[in-house]
Design brief:
CATH superfamily of the largest domain: Vaccinia Virus protein VP39
Number of domains: 2
Mean pLDDT: 91
Helix content: 25-40%
Order of helices and strands: EHHEEHEHEHEEHHEHEHEEHEHHEHEHHE
Oligomer: single chain
Distance between the termini: 55 Å
Strand content: 15-25%
Radius of gyration: 26 Å
Low-confidence stretches: 181-190
CATH topology of the largest domain: Rossmann fold
């Protein structure tokens, strides 16, 4: 078979470029390294010209872009495109320098797992060296096992994780000369209502997600939300707190209606909203959403209120309201605090409360270790069987039941001190087991995801 070469796009390959693009669509797979080929559906010649324009500073379509070369992988003397790869000649501060990197690449679906990605990246590294780069940054998604293997096979040395909102990428540097690769660490950055007002007034809710052990819950929840996002969906977050989820979704281009009860949370939320974020905030109770019409929203987030509702009547009312404002076929995400992890870790382990005292007061059942709560204790703790009973009357289809932090809090000190590579490995493990029925009861927080019939 003829040797592999990199070829720049030209008018001579129009039909093959169309074939490459169409195969990506047939396999419903995302394209990488092709300079936005999907955006040029009706004019491939214009895409070829755009590739040429991107090569020089003088012809860049926008000053927000950087110079880049796009190549197609082929066998010499043959016309079939096996993959495409994009080499950025510099990194502009922002997304490109954090997540994009110098090189992006993709392989034709029917040609994957044949070694073409590794061969293509090695050829592109030679091109990078020709233009004077001494090392290149290559990033891959946390879940992309194949891409990680390709990067490492080409000499990639793990630097750290890049985390922006819910996006998590692994960063690797590949040295193009004989110098050893060095990586720089990055610093990571009276009534029920009265009890809650007092509680949240002394807390910075966003800071709960700042430590690495806390970030796991956020990343897991966003991971499931993103499965059901599509252009134009309407989203409501009930019990939005200081807006971490709402703001992340708004940054992704979605309009969000946020509902929050606690005044101090709303004040903090408003301070954090930027002009680019399309968010409206309404102060209201999750049990009364009469300001919203029936069947309005495609996605409904109920990620906090059930932590602070202590009777089945109130919980049922909150779930009923969440379902009422959700369109038929819409998706609801309901979060809970689980009891067993709290008893073991918070009680027996860390001594945040006295288990014996709670048993004597009737808060913890001495035989079954079921729990009951009240506004003074702030949090309502449940088990999955309680959630199942609560949901039984509703016309819904459960899609996922997830432990959003699983064993993370049990080993929080270890998680917080992990290096980036170990933390990435831990996240992959967590994502792999977070729906396992034999393990999810160990989680501090759970997420019930269901579709409205």
């Amino acid at each position: 078979m003829n040797k592999l070469i990199l070829v720049k796009p030209s008018e001579n390959y129009i039909s093959e470029i169309i074939s490459y693009r169409d195969e990506l669509r047939i396999y419903d797979t995302h394209a990488h390294g092709d300079n936005g080929l999907y955006e040029w559906e009706n004019d491939i010649s214009a895409w070829v010209k755009n590739c040429r324009d991107m090569e020089c500073l003088e012809t860049l379509p926008s000053r927000d872009l950087v110079e880049a070369d796009t190549f197609m992988l082929m066998h010499e003397g043959e016309s079939q495109i096996l993959g495409m790869i994009n080499l950025r000649k510099s990194l502009k501060e922002g997304y490109l320098s954090e997540h994009g990197g110098h090189i992006g690449y993709g392989v034709r679906p029917t040609m994957r797992r044949k070694g073409y990605a590794t061969a293509m990246l090695k050829l592109c590294l030679k091109e990078a060296k020709k233009i004077g780069l001494d090392k290149v940054l290559v990033c891959c998604d946390l879940d992309n096992v194949g891409s990680r293997a390709v990067i490492k096979a080409c000499g990639g040395v793990f630097e750290r994780l890049a985390i922006t909102g819910s996006e998590v990428d692994e960063r690797y540097w590949i040295q193009l000369n004989d110098k050893p690769v060095t990586v720089q660490p990055k610093e990571e950055i009276a009534s029920n209502r009265n009890y809650l007002e007092e509680y949240y007034a002394t807390r910075k809710e966003d800071e709960r997600f700042t430590p690495r052990h806390g970030l796991v819950e956020f990343l897991t929840t966003m991971r499931y939300i993103e499965q059901y996002l599509s252009p134009g969906v309407r989203i409501i977050e009930i019990g939005a707190g200081t807006g971490r989820y709402s703001r992340t979704l708004a940054d992704m281009g979605y309009k969000v209606d946020a509902v929050e009860l606690i005044s101090s949370n709303i004040d903090e939320f408003r301070k954090k909203i930027t002009h680019e974020q399309d968010i409206s905030i309404t102060q209201a109770n999750a049990c009364d959403l009469t300001m919203f019409r029936d069947n309005c929203f495609d996605i409904t987030l109920l990620l906090g209120p059930l932590y602070h509702l202590y009777t089945n009547e109130d919980k049922t009312q909150a779930l009923s309201e969440a379902l009422r404002v959700t369109k038929p076929g819409g998706i609801v995400f309901a979060a809970y605090c689980l009891s067993d992890a709290s008893i073991v870790v918070g009680g027996f382990g860390r001594g945040r409360f006295n288990v014996k005292e709670f048993v004597e007061k009737g808060i913890i059942n001495p035989n079954t270790f079921d729990t009951s709560s009240c506004p003074e204790l702030i949090f309502e703790l449940v088990r999955k069987e309680d959630i199942d009973k609560l949901m039984a009357p509703f016309a819904v289809e459960r899609l996922h039941y997830v432990g959003t932090d699983m064993m993370t809090h049990w080993i929080r000190e270890s998680v917080d001190t992990m290096d980036d590579e170990t933390y990435a490995l831990f996240l992959r493990y967590h994502f792999a087991v977070c729906e396992r029925a034999d393990m999810v009861g160990a989680s501090h927080h759970s997420l019930d995801v269901f579709r409205k019939n």
